[in-house]
């Protein structure tokens, strides 16, 4: 079984360092079709939304069953599961205080 190499892993960093940089001016983009107006209208930004208060990234271990249930709850509410977890933790912390 071949392991998935993340760009953040040590082997991934070695591969990244050994790759030769090619300036944009030397890349042939001719086989990439132009985006249509409809495609441009449907596009959306990806990544974290710009906000005044950044959240801190942490890692926690959650039982697979619990994570499944949280993801299912989040899907019903049409929100990302991480947002739901944040809201639940915030609510629990405010009740405990």
Which descriptors would you attach to this protein?
97 residues; mainly alpha; 4 helices; 45% helix; extended
What would your notes on this structure say?
Helix 3 crosses helix 4 (81-96). The chain has 4 helices and no strands. The model has no long low-confidence stretch (mean pLDDT 86). It has helices spanning 10-18, 37-42, 64-76, 81-96. It has 97 residues and is mostly helical. It is extended and about 60 Å long.
Question: How would you briefly describe this protein structure?
Answer:
The chain has 97 residues and is mostly helical.
Terminal Cα span: 49 Å
Low-confidence stretches: none
Largest sheet: none
**What average pLDDT do the residues reach?**
86
Class derived from helix and strand content: mainly alpha
How are helices and strands ordered from N to C? Answer: HHHH
Q: How many β-strands, per DSSP?
A: 0
Q: Helicity level, as a percent range?
A: 40-55%
Number of helices: 4
**Residue share in β-strands:** under 5%
Radius of gyration: 21 Å
Shape: extended
Blueprint of the fold:
Blueprint: H1 10-18, H2 37-42, H3 64-76, H4 81-96
């Amino acid at each position: 079984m071949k392991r998935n190499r993340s760009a953040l892993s040590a082997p991934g960093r070695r591969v990244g360092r050994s790759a030769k940089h090619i300036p944009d001016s030397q890349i042939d983009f001719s086989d990439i079709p132009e985006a249509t107006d409809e495609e441009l209208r449907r596009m959306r930004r990806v990544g974290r939304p710009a906000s005044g208060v950044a959240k801190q990234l942490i890692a926690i271990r959650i039982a697979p069953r619990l994570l499944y249930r949280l993801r299912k709850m989040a899907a019903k509410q049409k929100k990302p599961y991480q947002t739901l977890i944040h809201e639940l933790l915030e609510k629990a912390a405010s009740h405990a205080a």
